[in-house]
Every structure is written in structure tokens, then in C-alpha cells.
């Protein structure tokens, strides 16, 4: 089985966008970031979409954009958004249309990475301090774990390097 569609899922800060870019070159697959595709189609930033339309609108746009991007690409490496698998049967859609990989990064590491960046992520913005960020991420992961866990492959924190993920995926593809 050749690899045509690889989807990265996981919490905000787990490295979907960063790792996706690094892996795409190795696979020769075109890379897309689902958030960027939503921004392009909607003509507004993620922060603006949440502020002006609310989360329910964003989730509809996310689900529709996901299906459109997959339909448009015979080959694709896609970084999803942190909430993508958790709404509108998107986890089933992803699993039916390619190989899903969960970047399972512990909350303490997510906090370290996101402290400087929470303002760009509407669901994490306006938290008063590090403890509040940690408790928000802990709650979010608890609610989302069951969706992330539907992914066919999972890599733990320190194995989420381009080299290790490449090896994991190659092993799966050649033995599946
Ligand atoms: N493997 C990694 N090790 C350390 N920092 C990382 C790693 N992957 C991503 N980061 C950093 O974490 C932050 C969030 O990464 P990003 O790729 O935007 O995550 P996501 O798309 O999953 O929200 C960025 O500052 C990025 O540089
Ligand atoms: O966790 C979430 O629900 C979200 C994560 C974001 O993507 P990243 O995971 O790339 O930050 C983006 O889709 C939006 O802000 C909602
Ligand atoms: Mg991202």
C-alpha cells in the first residue's frame, strides 16, 4: 500500500504544523495546514472567525474545508487543527480517507511551547497565568483523548521528530 494521505492530529502545540512541514518534503506529498486553508477560504484569521462568528461556525467551516481539501488532493499531508477530530464525525472521515497519526505530547511540554503563543489560539487566549493554561490544556486533553486515540498511529513526545515519525509511518505502510 502506498501512502497518499497522511493526517497529523493532536493538541495545540503538539507540533502538527511544524512536523507536517518537515515531513512533507521527505514524502514528496503536498503539505496543507487546515487552519491556513480555513483562513484562505473565509478571508479572516482564526481569531477573527471565533470572535465574529463563534466556535460553532468555525467548526462547520473546519469540517467543510477538511472535506474540500481532501477531495481536491489526490495526495496530501495535512496538519489538522487541535479540535478537528472532535467535531462533525471528522475522526471517522480522517480514518476512512487516509492514515492518521496522533502526536501525543504531555501537557507540561505543551505549556512550555504555548506560553508565548496562546494569544493566537482563541481557545487558550485570555487565561491569566501559566497555571490556568495548564489546567485548560489538561481539561481539553481529557475531553479529546478518545478522539485522538482513534488515530491508527501514535507517537509519544520525544519520538515526534521527523526522523522517528518517518520510520514509524514507513513501518506501518510496509507491514499493513
Ligand atoms: N518537536 C518540537 N520540539 C520543540 N518545540 C516544538 C516541536 N514542535 C513544535 N514546536 C514548537 O511548538 C509550538 C507549536 O507548534 P505548532 O507546530 O504550531 O503546533 P500545532 O500546529 O500542533 O498547534 C511552536 O512554537 C513550535 O516551534
Ligand atoms: O484546539 C482547538 O480547538 C483549535 C486549535 C487550533 O489549531 P492548532 O492545534 O494548530 O493550534 C485552531 O484550529 C483553532 O484555534 C482551534
Ligand atoms: Mg497548527
Automatic annotation (TrEMBL):
Subcellular location: Cytoplasm
CDD domains assigned to the protein according to its UniProt record, in alphabetical order: SK (cd00464)
Pfam families, alphabetized: SKI
Binding locations of substrate: 35, 59, 82, 144
InterPro entries (UniProt xref): P-loop_NTPase, Shikimate/glucono_kinase, Shikimate_kinase/TSH1
Pathway: Metabolic intermediate biosynthesis; chorismate biosynthesis; chorismate from D-erythrose 4-phosphate and phosphoenolpyruvate: step 5/7
Catalyzed reactions: shikimate + ATP = 3-phosphoshikimate + ADP + H(+)
Residues engaged in binding Mg(2+): 17
Keyword presence, Magnesium: yes
EC numbers: 2.7.1.71
Keywords: Amino-acid biosynthesis, Aromatic amino acid biosynthesis, ATP-binding, Cytoplasm, Kinase, Magnesium, Metal-binding, Nucleotide-binding, Transferase
GO terms assigned for molecular function: kinase activity
Self-association and partners: Monomer.
Listed name of the protein: Shikimate kinase
Organism expressing this protein natively: Hymenobacter koreensis
Lineage: Bacteria, Pseudomonadati, Bacteroidota, Cytophagia, Cytophagales
